[in-house]
Amino acid sequence: MGAGKPLFRRSQICHGGRKPLPHDRHLPLISTPILVAAGGAIALGAVGGLMTPIGPWYANLRKPSLQPPNWLFGPAWTVILGLAAWSAVTAWNAAADDTARTSVVVLFGTNALFHLLWSPLFFKLRRPDWALIEVVFLWASLVALVLGLRPISPFASALIVPYLLWVSFASWLNWAIVRLNWPFE
User: Fold this and answer.
1) CATH architecture, range 31-59+69-181
2) Residue ranges per domain, the chain?
């Protein structure tokens, strides 16, 4: 890429990679896909936060030296879920037909399910070993998102990559905590 050239054109960001259509200028600023995606991201963040008590049990676990400070997780998840919401809207708007839109909903719905399951297993049930099994499915749902969104919108797919990288790191942290604190009852 030449110096000063943007990575993505405005039309790719606003229209999911497709050329703007004549009726696009009449679209409202806040559309149903934006409301659904933002609401989903807020709900996932809120439920995840409520299911993540940082109490004495967690504080007393032995953790790897690369464990980030507790305060970093909230901002990290806020950015990641915001990017995922942006990805969902971009993919929805770029989808060529109902089949592609159904794929977008199934991919994000599957990811949301696995996203919601991890915190209760790790924190509420205090079973990092079970959470380690579950995180494989969360990670696979992110790989499916990256690969499944690519034909619909490469930009939407790229927006999921930070989420995939964070969950990859979090999976390693989960494994390290299990290794350092085994067995769990």
Assistant:
1) Up-down Bundle (1.20)
2) 31-59+69-181
Q: How do the pLDDT tens digits run along the chain, 185 residues long?
A: 444 554 445 444 555 556 666 555 555 567 899 999 999 999 999 999 888 888 999 999 999 999 999 999 999 999 999 999 999 999 999 999 999 999 999 999 999 999 999 999 999 999 999 999 999 999 999 999 999 999 999 999 999 999 999 999 999 999 999 999 999 98
| DSSP string for the chain | --TT--SS-HHHHHHTTSPPPGGGGGS-SS-HHHHHHHHHHHHHHHHHHHT----HHHHTS---TTPPPHHHHHHHHHHHHHHHHHHHHHHHHH--SHHHHHHHHHHHHHHHHHHHHHHIIIIIS--HHHHHHHHHHHHHHHHHHHHHHTTT-HHHHHHHHHHHHHHHHHHHHHHHHHHHH----
